Amino acid sequence: MSQSPTTPQARFPAIRLDQVGKRFGDHQVLEGIDLEVAHSEVVCLIGPSGSGKSTLLRCMAFLEHYDQGEIYIEGALIGWEIDDQGRRRRASNRRLRQSRSNLGMVFQQFNLWPHMTALGNVSEALKRVKGLSRLDAERRGRQALERVGLLDKADAHPARLSGGQQQRVAIARALAMEPKIMLFDEPTSALDPELVGEVLAVMKRLASEGMTMVVVTHEMGFAARMADTLVFLDHGRIIARGAPAQVFGEEAPPRVRQFLQDYLERNALLIDANTEAPGAMPSSISAGDGAAAATKGMF
Amino acid sequence: MFDWTSFVHSLPLLGQALLVTLKASLAGNLFGFLIAIPVTALRLSSRPLARTLGASYIFVFRGVPLLVQLLVIYYLLPTTGLPNLSPMTAAVLALSLCSGAYIAEILRGGFLAIPPGQIEAARLLGIGAATTLVRIELPQAVRLTLPSLVNELVLLIKASALISVVGLADLSRVAQNLAASDYLFFQHYLVLALAYCLINLPLTFSGRLLERHLARSQYRAAE
User: Fold this and answer.
1) Partner of B110 for a Cys bridge, out of A5, A176, B144, B199, CB 3.0 to 4.6 A?
2) Would you kindly state where each structural domain of chain A is located, as residue ranges?
3) pLDDT tens by residue, B146-198
4) HSE on the CB side for A64, CA within 13 Å?
5) For an interface test with A, which of B47, B118, B119, B125 has the most A Cβ atoms less than 10 Å from its Cβ?
6) Vertex A19, ends A18 and A22: CA angle to 5°?
7) Is the CB of residue B206 less than 8 Å away from at least one CB of chain A?
8) Is the pLDDT assigned to residue A296 strictly greater than 80?
9) Does B123 touch chain A (CB under 8 A)?
10) Which of A294, A216, A287 is nearest to A254 (CA)?
11) Which DSSP string do the residues of A139-194 spell out, in sequence order?
């Protein structure tokens, strides 16, 4: 949304979801999800835990197999092939790899490979997938580490890094493959509060560089500031979407206002009301009367 | 009590026998490890047929005594028109197949301890299943199960005492022959027992060193 769709790749949206549904046994986790993500757009998926936002993100990478609807990544259906009769069949591994080559993913638990150094983690796929020589892979790996400010930690194993540093290495690992789209699955939820800022700072820079991003997050301040579009999920359905000022504004559905009020009350207990903390809401956004009362002075 | 002359005379023979024992059991362990990797992969596959195949392999080669496996491989295969195996080939084959089953069971635990998210990360980066197995899963599984793997090697060296049934002059067979020739049963079997101890001592010791080295190289399983 921050860039006009003039580039040739923008003939179709970066991601398009059409009536996506997913069930685990009897439990309908996702239902009737329609969503488009434009190139260079930052979309934040928010909502209570268990609302299906992580599952939705994982479906976009086909780490979960959605069983209704269609998900298109850069115009190509991911994970499935649908025949003339409308029956779906698993796409070949080659086609799935092709779709995924547009995606970079960052996980809540970092998922670095502990037996490799930071540089080893970042350059592994460059060697094994892109077929670069060790020298070239390490050169590009170092560039990726530099982008997240961790060039000096290239030779450290993950266990020797803080959580925030590990997550930044994980971001570098995904970036090194030059994906068009970055998916973030609660990237700061496993971090100590004082380490959240450094990861969010890296993500902010990525967004400002025009990266297309889908972020599942509990950091409402980040979501409000950084998102072009907020998508609020509840019980597997999208119940609100739009610009942050709209979703968090006076018109918000009661469920969203309740969620936001709870969030702000929880955070108001933690932070000094007079200083603007990294998780705090920007002052341009109001959260309804109740929430405003609970967080008087925060904005 | 102890006949030193007999002992000194037996040394060259024992030396050669030691080489036979080491060759068979080390080769058996190496090939067993190589067999164990695909067997573990089958065992942990999401496809039921592959799982059954892996489980059947382990069931057969862990369920049948090594002695019987040796005899079957050495005596039965040639009767089916297959080429004759040299005693050493038959011994290495039997030891590999058998230890492959045990090592597969050991590695399985190591593979299961790797957080699935690490594999998902590899998939997202486009790294294929085989490369993920060799580069990401196997090194961690080996580190996690190293004590059991060293233990399996020690067990295999001791189990290799059975290979004399196919006519190989390993440590145990040579000791028996020596005892039969001069009737110094106690002495020769005592030397035999000490020989096995001396082989296994440095193994246990270097296994522990390796473990400590890996622990110090900044690797923690909990991550």
Assistant:
1) B144
2) 248-299
3) 999 999 999 999 999 999 999 899 999 999 999 999 999 999 999 999 999 99
4) 19
5) B125
6) 120
7) no
8) no
9) yes
10) A287
11) HHHHHHHHHTT-GGGTT--GGGS-HHHHHHHHHHHHHTT--SEEEEESTTTTS-HH
- Average pLDDT in the A138-148 region? 97
Asked if A106 contacts A174 with a C-beta cutoff of 8 angstroms, the reply is: yes
pLDDT, tens digit, 9 for 90 and up, residues A22-53: 999 899 999 999 999 999 999 999 999 889 99
User: Burial, B163: exposed, middle or buried (Cβ in 10 Å; 0-12, 13-18, 19+)?
Assistant: buried
The residue assigned the tokens 């050495």 is B74
Q: Is residue A274 predicted with pLDDT exceeding 80? A: no
Residue of B nearest to A155 (CA): B218
Q: Which two tokens stand for residue A228?
A: 């072009």
Domains parsed from chain B with CATH numbers: 4-216 (1.10.3720.10)
Amino acid at A123: S
- Determine contact: B16 vs chain A, CB below 8 A: no
Q: A94 or B78: whose pLDDT is higher?
A: A94
Please write the tens of the pLDDT for every residue from A179-204. Answer: 999 999 999 999 999 999 999 999 99
Which DSSP letter does residue A26 get? T
In this complex, which of B120, B126, B218 lies closest to A129 when CB atoms are compared? B126
Q: Quick one: DSSP state of residue B84?
A: P
Question: Amino acid identity of A226?
Answer: M
Ranges A144-158, A274-288, B79-93, most confident: A144-158
Cα–Cα separations (whole angstroms), residue A142 to A83, A161, A169, A210, B109: 44, 16, 11, 22, 35
Give the per-residue pLDDT at A281. 59
Q: In one letter, which amino acid is A35?
A: L
| ipTM attached to this prediction | 0.85
Name the average pLDDT for chain A: 88
CB contacts, 8 Å: B135 with chain A: 124, 128
In A, which residues are within 8 Å of B218 by CB distance? 156-157, 159-160
Residue A71 phi, psi (nearest 5): -125, 120
Answer whether B117 sits within 8 Å of A100, measured CB to CB.
no
Nearest to B136 by CA among A125, A295, A33, A153: A125
The pLDDT value recorded for residue A285 is: 54
Tokens for A135? 């020298």
| Residue-level pLDDT at A291 | 43
Beta-bridge partner residues of A89: A81
CA distance A181 to A10: 13
